[in-house]
Structures are given as C-alpha cells and as structure tokens.
Amino acid sequence: MDIKAYAKINLGLYIIGKRPDSFHNIETIFYHINLFDELHLTAANHISISCSNPFIPTDSNNLCWKAVELLQNELGITNGVNIAIHKNIPTGAGLGGGSSDAAAILCNVPKLWNINPQPSLLEKLALKLGSDVPFFLLNSSAYAEGRGELLQEIVLSLPYWIVLINPQIHVSTPWAYKVLSEKRNGVFPIRQRMFDQFSHSPIQTIVNAKNDFEDIVFKQFPAIKKIKDQLSEFGSVVSLMSGSGSSVFGLFENEHSAQSAVEYFQKEHFVHLTEPFFSPQPQ
C-alpha cells in the first residue's frame, strides 16, 4: 500500500493564552500543500520502520511506530506492519511532517488488517500522538482552536501559487512558547475571533493573517525574517512563517513571479511550489 502524507502550513497563528495543563490555546487555519512524504506499507507479524532520512528514528521513538502500537492496544490485536518512509518534508520545519505520517498510519494500517475503526477512535488516538495530528486525518482545510485539536472543517481553495522556503534552521517550539510568554508577561491580547473574520471574508482574512511567533523568532534568527521580506519583494500578496518556524511561505497571484522566487531561493534553501486551488488526495 502506497500513501502520500501531505505537509501543512498555518495561514495565521495566534497564541490566545496559557492553559492550566501548561499547553497554550491557539487559533490558526491549517492548509495542505502539495508536498508529501511517501509511505509504503506491507502487512507483517511485527512492527518495522525504514526511512530515507538517517536522522529520523526507526524504533519506538518514531510517531508512526507509536501510532501502530496505539492501534494494536485499542483494537486488541497483534498484527504488525512494515513501514518504509521516503521523507520529502523537512523535519522540525513547522510543516507537520511527522504528524502527517502518523495520521496516515492511523488511517491506513487498519485497512491492511481488514478492520474499519470508527472515526472517533482515530481522532482519540491522533490526539494522544500530538496536537496537530487530528488535522491530518482530514482531507480538507480546517480552522483550529484549543491546542489545535478543536477543528472545524472549512472550504478553502486558495487562488495563489504557494512558494515555500525552508532555510534548515532549527527553531525549538518549547523555546518559542516560553519566550513569547515572557515577552507578554502573562498578558494575551484580545482579538476578534479568526473564524468570525474568515466567515465574513475568507481570502481577506488570509491576506491579513499574522503569526504571533514571528517577532521573537525573527529577533533570534534574522535570516528567517530576511526570507519573508524577500518574498514580499518578489511580489507575494502575503508572506508568513508557518508554525513556530523556520519555514516561510509566500502567496503569489502571478506564476512568473512565483517561479522567479523559486529560482532565486533554491540556490541556498529547500524550496517547494504548490499550485493554486490545491487539494490533497483522499486518505
């Protein structure tokens, strides 16, 4: 069985406040891009993982392995699976590659076992694996609240070329949350709810979106800010950092401008181009 596990970008990211469980409430819109890891699954009597990226763990520390174990425990079976992962999505880049791979396992490994679990079970297991894993169970865009697990599917087909740049700079998500909280001194600004804005004017909401992490990340890593500024110079309608970084994307109305940006940035960075009106293949 061959599967595509798509990356996501955050079309805006707002940190609303800190929760009693030490997580943060957020607001964001998740959107798939046409960048994906390739997974090949074969039925087996045990769990095994191989990966094209030598820095990705292939033991029980891998989210895919954990996803299979959760399925085994919940379904009460001992079947295994061989998982071969070809990584195309940069790691630690704010693109959700590991989470997407894990969600693909939850959706597809039961098919190898001739089992059809309830969607509610998969959602429960996804949240155990990570806050953004539930999104990757969907084939649509979604507005997200809470830790990112409270999802409302939305119809969103962007009329833009999406130029994604990853400078391969590691930005620690726990560090970003910690520094942001210290900067705000526990005060979180009150905003109009992003979903209300989106309901009224979808595209304008995207164009006006912000990422609350940008100020602190750009101060620590000015090279990331430079990429954002350069995307604007190439003519992007908007450029934003995805997640806590370090990937940055620009939305372009004009294919020629988008291709010019791709040609410029690919000399030094990982670059990917997603066509307008993209939607992922169903899981």
CATH architecture of the largest domain: 2-Layer Sandwich
Q: What's the CATH first level of the largest domain?
A: Alpha Beta
Domain module count: 2
The shape, in one word, is globular
How many helices in DSSP terms? 9
Strand content: 25-35%
Order of helices and strands: EEEHEHHEEEHHHHHEEHE
Helical coverage, percent range = 25-40%
Overall radius of gyration: 19 Å
Spatial gap, N to C terminus: 11 Å
Would you count the extended β strands for me?
10
Tell me, rounded to a whole number, the average pLDDT. Answer: 95
Low-confidence stretches are: none
The major sheet is characterized as:
6 strands, mixed
User: Structural class of the helix and strand makeup?
Assistant: alpha+beta
What's the CATH topology name of the largest domain?
Ribosomal Protein S5, domain 2
- Quaternary structure state of the chains depicted: single chain
Description:
This protein is α+β, with helices and mostly antiparallel strands and 283 residues long. It is built from nine helices and ten strands. The strands form two sheets. Strands 1, 2, 3, 4, 5 and 6 form a six-stranded mixed beta sheet that branches. Strands 8-9-7-10 form a four-stranded antiparallel beta sheet, with helices on one face. The longest helix has 16 residues, at 97-112. The chain is globular. The model has no long low-confidence stretch (mean pLDDT 95).
